[in-house]
Specification:
CATH class: Alpha Beta
CATH superfamily: paralog of FGE (formylglycine-generating enzyme)
CATH topology: paralog of FGE (formylglycine-generating enzyme)
Shape: globular
Strand order of the largest sheet: 1-11-10-9-12
CATH architecture: Alpha-Beta Complex
Distance between the termini: 44 Å
Radius of gyration: 19 Å
Oligomer: single chain
Helix content: 10-25%
Number of helices: 6
Order of helices and strands: EHEEEEHHEEHEHHEEEEE
Structural class: alpha+beta
Strand content: 5-15%
Largest sheet: 5 strands, mixed
């Protein structure tokens, strides 16, 4: 494997099922430092410290309920503004990340601190009898695992219960499609009595940035990122010696790690960079930022693509950022892709 892109999330492009699992690849060749939160605009008359202009948090409904009994902890997003996307001064940014634009996130919504786990998804399946797209053979049979050389392979035996490597109930569930994630949210809404859905891209990026105006994450350099995210590192290289460009550290998790095992960001969100890529709610529109509304934007349209954000256990540090965006057909399932949930007012 000389081309790294064959080993990241969109590595399944080489499979014969390309027509069924269309992946809208929008990857840019990022350079270190990789995990970035763009600085506040100096020319913005409203800019002040803290840079992201967040006001005091207005809590979402924080009453203990069914979700909390499952271990789903919702963190309220503070109402505020931030600059989303990459500026035109970033020479390696893809057009899909531009222009950088101001976004306002309204009060009353929150995201789960962690990705949905195997155990939480298992409870959903047990109570509903739900079969995932991989199990039902939607478009193609099965999900994605790994062969002996570390290549992604599509095969009938792979699904959320068998991603091709060992997981426990506290690992993030993978090999779930956008459709599967949506069904989980509908079940959680019915059972808990409060409204859940996938995060929008704007909510996801706002939570990931967490009010930060510095380029580095948690003040660490690129070779220390194994402390803050489960990215490709020496533990993965030990499994597959030809895996290129890992971070220098060794977090002891070649594949997925238990959720929350790595440091959270300043707002308490874990694993938004690393562990698994995450589905978002919107329609994936490559040039949406050129037409995005300022207040609580969500891309809507007839296209089949859905956004994927963050990074996974297989991703080198130079391919992760808060702004990188890609999309895929909603039936895609692979062993480095999962989701987290948002809790929102009923009308949203």
């Amino acid at each position: 494997m000389t081309n790294h892109s064959a080993r990241i999330l969109w590595g399944i492009l080489g499979l014969a099922v390309i027509a069924a699992l269309t992946v809208l690849l929008v990857v840019r060749p990022w350079s270190a430092p990789a995990l970035v939160a763009q600085s506040v605009r100096a020319d913005d008359p409203g800019a002040s410290a803290p840079a992201m202009l967040a006001t005091a948090a207005v809590s979402v409904d924080a009453r203990p309920g069914f979700a909390e009994s499952l271990g789903i902890r919702i963190i309220a997003l503070p109402e505020g503004d931030f600059w989303m996307g990459s500026p035109f001064t970033e020479p390696k940014a893809m057009p899909s990340e531009q222009p950088e634009h101001r976004v306002h996130i309204s009060a009353g919504r929150g995201l789960s601190a962690h990705e949905v786990t195997v155990g939480q998804f298992r409870r959903f399946v047990t109570e509903t009898g739900y079969q995932t797209d991989a199990e039902r053979g939607m478009d193609v049979s099965g999900g994605v695992g790994l062969d002996d050389l570390g290549q992604f392979v599509l095969a009938p035996q792979y699904n959320w219960q068998n991603p091709g490597f060992a997981q426990t109930d506290d690992h993030p569930v993978v090999n779930v499609s956008w459709n599967d994630a949506e069904e989980f949210c509908r079940w959680l809404t019915r059972t808990d009595g409060r409204t859940y859905r996938l995060p929008t891209e704007a909510e996801w990026e706002y939570a990931c940035r967490a009010g930060r105006a510095t380029l580095a994450v948690a003040g660490v350099d690129v070779d220390q990122l194994d402390q803050v995210g489960n990215l490709a590192d020496e533990s993965l290289r030990q499994k597959f010696s030809n895996w290129a460009n890992p971070v220098a550290g060794n977090d002891a998790y070649a594949f997925t790690a238990p959720v929350g095992r790595f440091f959270g960001n300043p707002w308490g969100f874990h694993d938004q960079i690393g562990n698994v890529w995450e589905w978002c709610l919107d329609t994936f529109i490559i040039d949406f930022y050129t037409q995005s509304p300022e207040v609580d934007p969500v891309a809507k349209g007839p296209g089949p693509g859905r956004p994927i954000r963050g990074g996974g256990w297989e991703t080198p540090p130079t391919k992760c950022s808060t702004t990188i965006r890609s999309g895929s057909a909603r039936t895609l399932r692979t062993n480095n892709l999962g989701f987290r949930v948002a809790r929102v007012p009923a009308e949203l």
